Amino acid sequence: MAEEEKAAEVPAADAAAAEADAGGGNAIPPGCKPMFIQMAKYEEYGLGTNGTNDGVCPWKTYTKEWVLEECNKMGFMSDFHPFMKDVQAYPGEDVLIINDPEQKYGDNFYICLTVEAKEREMGVFLAAEKAAADAKAKAEAEEAARLAAEEARRNAVYEDKPVLSRPYVSETAEATLDEVRELKTTPERPLLGCTVVRPRSSFGHPYRFDNRDAEITFKVPSQMNPDFQTKQMERDVGLQGALPQANSSSQTTWYRPVNKGVQYTAVGAQDAAAAENPALVAFLKRVRPQLEDALQQNETVDIFKDAFAGVGDEDAAVGQKGDNELKEMRNYNDIKYSKNMSISAIDWHPTRKGMIAVSPTRNLSFDERVEQSGQAHTAHILLWDFIDLIHPQIMLQSPHEMFCFRFNPCPGQQNLVAAGCLNGQVIIWDIAEAMATLNERESRGGRRAKEDGGDGGQDEEQIPPVEALAVSQIDFSHRGMVADMAWLPPNTQVNIKGQLLAEEHLDGKSHQFLTLSGDGSCLVWDLRYADIAEGHLPHIAKPRHVQTDKNQKGPVEHKWLPLFRMQLKRLEGVGELSLCKLCLGLGDETSSADGLDRRSQLFASTEEGEIVFADWRARPAGAKDDKGAEAEDDGHEAPEYVQWMAPDHGRPCVALQPSPFFPEILLSVGDWNFQLWKLDHKVPIFSSPAASTYLTAGKWSPTRPGMLFIARTDGGVDV
Questions:
Q1: How far apart are CA 384 and CA 394, in angstroms?
Q2: Quick check: pTM over 0.85?
Q3: What is the CA radius of gyration of the chain?
């Protein structure tokens, strides 16, 4: 057996490992394969061992003939047997194996099966050996020089020579002189002379010294100096204040009386054609529901009653204002989930009376929010019932705090709750099962109360928190906090391009909702994202190809992504809009005031106090009107969703709501006043005077079209 062995120091192995890491992590070098050698054969193969991997040679070469002889002799028991064919095709004479103690490439060794790989790896080891030898030689030369210097210092011979005196030479003499010159004051103008004169007769007089206190005060009496007397002449001046007089006259406008007469005839059969006018019929159909409601209210409500009779007089005495204050009836607070927290969102249950949902959030400052940004914090939406003041009936669990949520108002879907989180994600819950459990407990408690004679108040275990039905992907959600949201009506469902679905694709249910955030984006989310991803709803969106793991068992979990994204930008084209409030529901052809389809239009307010009117079916700037709804995909630039903007308030809007009787009238409440806007009017139709304190919220009256409720920070409510 002919073999060639050569050991290298540890730095060579480190250099090889560093080169392998630089070449792409755990990817094995080209022309090499991982090789496993049993520890029991280390001595047989001449690798050397002391019972551990520390005594193994970093590399070793074997002749090609010896490797083939070993494979033929030991068969598959040989560690070289898996590479027998590669060694037979190897053109070189020596085969190189390299130790891989960290098993970066899968096994404890790897073998070079090409001449290029062998030369490359050997070059690494030889370069490392040369560098180590050079470093060792340099260290030895430095040590020899140090020893020679030490020896010379010890054997130094000192000669006794006389001390010679030399003149002192200063290197900083000039600098010292300059500093002295700077400290010296040199006058720049001639000096002024002064002479002090004293009469000679005052010299030589005797002096008398007395003892006096240290504090000596001299009194200088005032005297009249005739050189400084001011003389003033007396003058007689007369003044009188009088307003200027002017003659003016005015006359009111006079209208000349004119006698006129009007004659009318009753509509007969000859005017039947006018009654069949399509425009008149459409108008009557549109106003018929409102007219019927008004007539029914006139029959059931006293329309002549003063609506403000029970509000009270603002000028009443202070002692009598207790009758006009709102009294607190009940207080709901959970010790664990809502104590010392603020309520960021509140909403009534659509069908169950006496149930209200709130979203508690922590009272943190801006700096504390920044420090805890990105950290998950379990939050809950609490559903309270007026019959229980201590425990919430249902809790909806979320991984982040929520600043807005909405129940689905569509009949049959009131158990769906959507919420927007602080980190921009949206969450959906289904509380149908929890509501069924709650109803069953109430019915069982009522039966127990009858059986026990009215005492059926045994406490039962609380319903566990409801887990989220779906959570959106954070990479495709909003970049900021979800500021507001709204469910789309059943007749306003869109596809992936933002186009309204045809009538045959609507099922009378609301599956989509819209959210907005301070990042300027409006996103439409669809609850049927799994069916869309599987291709069951091609009229909404084509299925997206999603890479899945072949070894995954069970159904594929689809990611919840937004169906449609609308980015609102300023009309100048620079800067995004920081949206904070949303208003939908402007009506379609049958319900809008002007008979236009406004289902895709919305109002929004910004944090800068501006009001924005947008349309997600807007056409791109370069598209023509005759290209149909597919104009967005013809290569033009992005559509201009924002139709117009107008200044509304000086700071962010706190309430934005359409009138329940006139959808084209909009209420906007700011910090100091509220304004009324009308559709297609770029200026407010009414602006209230400034309030005495901050305003916090505002709502329309659900029964009277002209009544508003405005809340203040001092606890008062303006009607």
A1: 7
A2: no
A3: 48
Tell me how far apart the terminal alpha carbons of the chain are, to the nearest angstrom. 107
The pair of three-digit structure tokens given for residue 556, joined into one six-digit string: 């594929």
Segment 304-313, tens digit of pLDDT: 777 666 665 5
CA 707/CA 714 separation, integer angstroms: 21
Length of the chain: 719
**CA–CA dist 458, 266 (Å, integer):** 74
**Per-position b or e across 136-175, b if 16+ CB within 10 A of its CB:** eeeeeeeeeeeeeeeeeeeeeeeeeeeeeeeeeeeeeeee
Concatenated DSSP letters for 506-546? --S---EEEEEETTSEEEEEETTHHHHHTTS-TTT-PPPP-
Residue of 377, 345, 363 whose CA lies nearest to 581 = 345
Place of tokens 């009294």: 327
Low-confidence winner among 26-30, 169-173, 176-180 (lowest mean pLDDT): 26-30
Confidence of residue 142 (pLDDT cuts 50, 70, 90): very high
Three-class DSSP category at 671: coil
- Which candidate, 631, 669, 629, places its Cα nearest to that of 649? 669
Q: What is the DSSP string of 149-198?
A: HHHHHHT------PPPP-----TTHHHHHHHHHHHS---SSPPPP-----
3-state secondary structure of 676: strand
